[in-house]
Amino acid sequence: MHHKVRQISLVSVGLVAGVCVSIGISAVAQKQPSDPLPLSELREFTEVYGAIKNFYVEPVTDQKLFEGAISGMVSNLDPHSAYLDQDAFKELRVGTQGQFGGLGIEVGTEDGFVKVISPIEDTPAQRAGVKAGDLIIKIDNKPTKGMSLSDAVNLMRGKPKTTIKLTLLRKSVDKPIDVTIMRDIIKVQSVKFKMLDDGYGYVRITQFQEHTGEYLAKALNKLEAEKPMKGIVLDLRNNPGGLLNAAVGVAGAFLPKNALVVSTDGRTEDSHRKLVVTPSDYLRGQEKDYLSDLTAVAKKLPMVVVVNGGSASASEIVSGALQDNGRAKILGTQTFGKGSVQTILPLNNNTAIKLTTARYYTPSGASIQARGIVPDFYVAETPEGDVVGRIREADLSHHLNNDKGGQETPPPDERKVELAPDAKDLKPILFGSADDYQLQQALNYLKGKPVAQNKRPPEETAKADKKK
């Protein structure tokens, strides 16, 4: 891929992949394999193909067989590589505008089922009670066991104002749960902001979209014009990620010019990149530099970033950049650990493959992959623990390892996640509200008051001690 690449995120109808990806303009065929083709394996493949064509109980089209073969070949690599059919590829190219039709859930696969990574804030799925970690075992009574993720996506797609029934398995509930959801146009407001008590600005970013950096700059200017700010709280909780250039722009709002935000590394020359606070790394084309008119206090005020296990990919890039550059303290719980780069490689028939091609590294050189960002202050959702349990990258089958030797987050059965004793009876926290315990602790830090921390899980203790 010798042409300049363009970063976009996979946003499907009702499903958000929550990853930073780049789209390759040149055809896949231009990259020839370096090794000879394995003739014995190709012979076996053609034998299987011929057997299906000749003996399967019903006729099967060539297109279905080849698409299935491609899909299986790619999806077995890692949780984020996938085959995109024509509909999925079309939605990918138009889905970063902050509006799309569907349910509003981020999903992956686990043990042959579709697994909910996170419902998107203020969407039909969240309002219907879908929770992170739920296994979708049926879609409109059709079992999902063994179903490819793309097929499941196709079943969940549909016109707004039409209904769909999901059957869910939840660890805390003995029986399957049936949930009927009305599809809708999902409008994701990526930047929300308000002035908190005593002049502290609160900015929540729900997703990294095309104009998120621009909206953030406007929000900070409005807050400073309303009342001189004493400090800033940046809320990235449950933010699944999005556009890489948007992440660089958001970090750039708080960092000095040319500060390193993130680096990537993989097997190809294209994958060796360092992204810094410069317009060429956060702007698209000839658009105006939205950071040029940003209030100067944004780069100077005391700052806290609030994260949790639902903060992934671009959220982790921003958190890691601000932490490693000494610009902000990170408060909350360990992030998701999505530290890989996906490249969209178009095929010749308006389809594509989404292929993992590199890993992300924070400015200090630490790998985000299957590790995430360890907060400076470990604070759960309540004094007793979290209200909602969350899955992380390390919980997903076939996830990439942490090549820098970082301790991976253990799977849920081995991870000592501290949940509040009455978590089942508690409602999810309304971020930014007066009852938001993590936000209150962030304000305590900015005001010079003690921060009430929860007991840090064992897997975080070693790294936290090493940082001191």
Automatic annotation (TrEMBL):
Superkingdom field: Bacteria
Signal peptide: none
Entry keywords, A to Z: Hydrolase, Protease, Serine protease
InterPro entries linked to this entry: ClpP/crotonase-like_dom_sf (IPR029045), CtpA/B_N (IPR055210), PDZ (IPR001478), PDZ_6 (IPR041489), PDZ_sf (IPR036034), Peptidase_S41A (IPR004447), Tail-specific_protease (IPR005151)
Coiled coil: none
UniProt cross-references to SMART domains, sorted A to Z: PDZ, TSPc
Transmembrane segments: none
Keyword GTP-binding: no
Region span, Disordered: 448-468
UniProt family annotation: Belongs to the peptidase S41A family.
Protein name: Peptidase S41
Species of origin: Limnobacter litoralis
Gene it is expressed from: ctpA
